[in-house]
Amino acid sequence: MTKSLYGAKEASGIWIYLEQSQGQLEGVSLELVGKARELADGRGIPIVGVLLGDQVGDLAQEAIAAGADEVRVADDPLLRQYTTDGYARVVTEIILEGKPDILLLGATPDGRDLAGRIAVRLRTGLTADCTDLKLEEKSGLLIGEVWGFGGGVIAYIKCPDNRPQMATVRAGVFAVPKPDAARKGKVVNVPVKLSEKDIKVQVLEHVVGGGVDITRAEVLVAAGRGCQGDFTLVNELASLLDGEVGWSRVPVDEGWVSRDGMIGQTGYTTRPKLAIVCGISGAFQFTVGVEKAETIVAINIDAEAPIFEAADYCIVDDMFNVLPPLIEAVKKARGGNGGR
Amino acid sequence: MRPLQIIACVKVVPKPEEVKVDTKTMTIERGEVRSEINPPDMNVLEMALTLKEQHGGKVTVIAMGPPLFEPYMRLALAMGADEAYLLSDRAFAAADTLATSYALAQGIRKIGDYDLILCGEESSDGATAQVPPGIAEWLETSQITYAEDLEVLSDSKMVKAKRELAGGYEVIQVPLPCTVSVKIGANEPRFMDMERKVWAEADGPVTVWAASDIDVEAEMIGLPGSPTIVDGLAQAESTERKREFLEGTPEEQAKVLVERLRPYL
Ligand SMILES: Cc1cc2nc3c(=O)[nH]c(=O)nc-3n(C[C@H](O)[C@H](O)[C@H](O)COP(=O)(O)OP(=O)(O)OC[C@H]3O[C@@H](n4cnc5c(N)ncnc54)[C@H](O)[C@@H]3O)c2cc1C
Ligand SMILES: Nc1ncnc2c1ncn2[C@@H]1O[C@H](COP(=O)(O)O)[C@@H](O)[C@H]1O
């Protein structure tokens, strides 16, 4: 057996890697703090956040308000931006010092970049992209639920011997906890032993922000290849319903839109009340990202499209024929209600 | 410019729509299932071949898996790869990402010369995206995940790429050797060359290595080398849906739909 750098006997606590970008915590990090709090309650397990960056200390209180008992902060100008080498080094040091039992990270591009690297460095097991987390009743071991084979199969994974038990979780899987500003916690500044030559990664350009967060949308209108790059009607319907616009993988691959609104296995997990899905065939990899919706409407020209198996209301027709009268009917209905 | 030594990590996966769980034994029924090259790894092959066209050099395919992978290695040769190595041994079976990345890394060490190790963003069956950073760590290379627009700067021995972020992107430059995970859909994979296909099927250089052929420690590969274990399987239960098909002209359908959606309006 490949031995981890420390063992179960020395390990304690659920730790969460608090990912931040440009001085803002990723929502998924707070979701994980909230879930960890829920798992820990009644078991007396401490919840510890790990926060890296440049002048990011203020964010520690946000994690505490969300449920953390303690936050370890590594603050250094060299950590201003995420780099695999810089971050992997500092996080590994913090982990080896604190010896957590469980380490959770958001399954964001940077979170997965880091998790895969440090799991090998620590010689431990990593359950990637969990859709749920539990603690086993007797042993207290972490059980990660994952979807395999394109979504048809669920597997429960655990890591009995090696520590930390690592897992990544996608944004939107757990709810964001209600912040409790009165919560008290400890903030520990950890010394950063980094020099410029430790960081070989040069960040030449860094562009983020401005995108909408479809994981929180109550109404989602989604389009796929069937829209042929024309989102006009989809945008109109979404704004009429105070909703957001999402899409399948194809519009991203075709270069029509960015990845911000991509739904599915390699995109976001959404949980809207209403999803209206237009011109999307309904591959597993897409459907896993909307199947938590309360109600799903599918509009597809092909009566055999698998999306209809996942829908409550099915319209077999060209989306460009259906959306204009639908927009009119929604306008009328809302007008009749006196709007909102 | 110096020719490039490129390793392409290519996995063969069951077609996702054909996989079922035997709910009695809780095992995955793979018997009748057809396989394919993991679709993101087609983007790997395309990127490897494009870079070879730009810089000269060699594209070597590596995979770890059962003997059924072999014909797919030949498809990669037919697309344009130069040679292929298949790590195939019962001892490699049931590996998690730690053991998989270790075995692949040791296979790559045995191949020897490499500037770039290209992997897919994720596999459609494992879907962890964790093997590429794992290989990078075992081999102590730099890494770029979710990469597209790869540019090799041979003179400075660097590689530059656009890399996807949550809600954005960055452009980074790192030293070679580098392990890259190629963003799904980063390019349009080419078709097989039919003349090469004939050659690849008859004489294509595919080498099969057993565990004893590469330098691996028995307790670090396969099931023993995997810290994670599968504790149970279940067929995903989909939410019960009404599946009501609306009838009539688009106007009539719109009207009925709005009635049904009242609570959300
Ligand atoms: C590892 C991996 C990960 C993946 N991750 C994701 C993911 O996260 N998200 C995702 O979405 N996909 C993902 N995919 C891709 C997925 O398998 C499908 O290829 C993709 O979802 C298809 O997108 P689509 O439905 O828009 O396009 P298509 O499958 O091409 O379907 C287009 C549909 O539009 C219909 N149509 C065409 N014209 C019209 C019209 N005028 N009006 C109405 N209907 C029309 C057609 O009948 C068809 O059903 C992944 C694939 C792999 C291998
Ligand atoms: N058994 C394997 N053989 C070859 N390459 C692999 C194997 N497993 C994973 N990979 C590579 O790692 C990438 C990501 O896989 P995964 O971490 O399983 O999602 C794949 O796209 C492949 O390039």
Compose a concise summary of this entry:
With 340 residues, chain A is an alpha/beta fold.
Explained architecture:
Chain A contains eight helices and 20 strands. With 340 residues, chain A is an alpha/beta fold. In chain A, the strands form five sheets. Chain A has a seven-stranded parallel sheet, with helices on both faces. A five-stranded parallel sheet of chain A has the order 17-16-18-19-20. The model of chain A has no long low-confidence stretch (mean pLDDT 93). Chain B has a single domain (4-220), classed as HUPs (Rossmann fold). Chain B has six helices and 15 strands. In chain B, helix 3 (97-111) packs across helix 4 (131-139). The radius of gyration of chain B is 22 Å and the shape is globular. The termini of chain B are far apart. The model of chain B has no long low-confidence stretch (mean pLDDT 92). Classes of the chains: A alpha/beta (340), B alpha/beta (265). The structure holds flavin-adenine dinucleotide and adenosine monophosphate (AMP). The site of adenosine monophosphate (AMP) has 24 residues of chain B, from helix 1, strand 6, helix 3, strand 8 and helix 4.
Query: Which architecture of chain B per CATH?
Result: 3-Layer(aba) Sandwich
Estimate the global geometry of chain A from the Cα principal axes.
elongated
Order of strands across the main sheet of chain A: 8-13-7-2-5-6-14
- What number of structural domains do the residues of chain A give? 2
Name of the CATH architecture of the largest domain in chain A: 3-Layer(aba) Sandwich
**Secondary structure tally, helices of chain B:** 6
Low-confidence stretches of chain B: none
Number of helix segments of chain A? 8
List the uncertain runs of chain A: none
What would CATH call the class of the largest domain in chain A? Alpha Beta
Structural class of chain A: alpha/beta
- Give the mean pLDDT of chain A: 93
The ligands found in this model are: flavin-adenine dinucleotide, adenosine monophosphate
Biggest interface, CB < 8 A? A-B, 100 and 84 residues
N/C terminus separation of chain B: 63 Å
Task: Return the CATH topology of the largest domain in chain A.
Answer: Rossmann fold
Strand order of the largest sheet of chain B: 11-10-9-12-8-1-6-7-13
Determine the CATH superfamily of chain B: HUPs
